[in-house]
Description:
Blueprint: H1 2-16, E1 20-24, H2 28-41, E2 44-48, H3 51-61, E3 65-69, H4 77-86, E4 93-97, H5 102-111, E5 115-118, H6 123-138, E6 146-148, E7 151-154, E8 159-162, E9 165-166, H7 171-181, E10 188-189, H8 190-198, H9 208-220, E11 229-232, E12 236-239
Parallel strand pairs: 1-2, 1-3, 3-4, 4-5
Antiparallel strand pairs: 6-7, 7-8, 8-9, 10-12, 11-12
Helix pairs in contact: 3-4, 5-9, 7-9
Amino acid sequence: MMGEMxxxxxxxxxxxxxxxxxxxxxxxxxxxxxxxxxxxxGYDAVFAHDGAQALSAxxxxxxxxxxxxxxxxxxxGLSVARTMRxxxxxxxxxxxxxxxxxxxxxxxxxxxxDDYLVKPFALDELLARLRALLRRTSVVDADxxxxxxxxxxxxxxxxxxxxxxxxxxxxxxFDLLELFLHNVGIVxxxxxxxxxxxxxxxxxxxxxLDVHVSYLRRKLEADGASRVIETVRGVGYTLRRS
Length: 242
């Protein structure tokens, strides 16, 4: 009896440490496939079939990651992402979309998504991206705040300022700025940046990195501030000292 009770308690403890992923997808067949994949991968999954249900589930379950389909009834995925960010919810978002134009991808990133994946996709790639996003949010950086010139960043509070002006950054923009601040004056190749930020073998011909850097620059250079993130053509990016 005691052995059985210990086994039950161990199982409950294991479940308690499993990341929770909210999956908002209106395609039932895809939801069923994702449910099976989540179970095998060791995630607790909560499912929603439209955007309104997704927002309710996010409030109820406080998931570790949100997987959002762009095209859903009632409230679409872009609206869900915008609403989350407007509420101050910085839970990582992976957007699923059947549209693969640059404009569609930019719309997802602009709405607050941290990453996107075009349908149809391989489950292995989806799971790799989930792991990367969760890994980025689970690391606690005990280092002191980093600063260069008028730029200041505190990894523990996830806050950043420039010349005293607070920067409102997405998770990916913050991670990029943190990476650049810890490598001032060093030219970081595209391969290195993709590996450090996304954490998996990404197609480095993708424009995803350029889009994120463009948005980060726009926020850093507001009110006429000088450019600090420089492009090294054919190689990558570097943050120079002011």
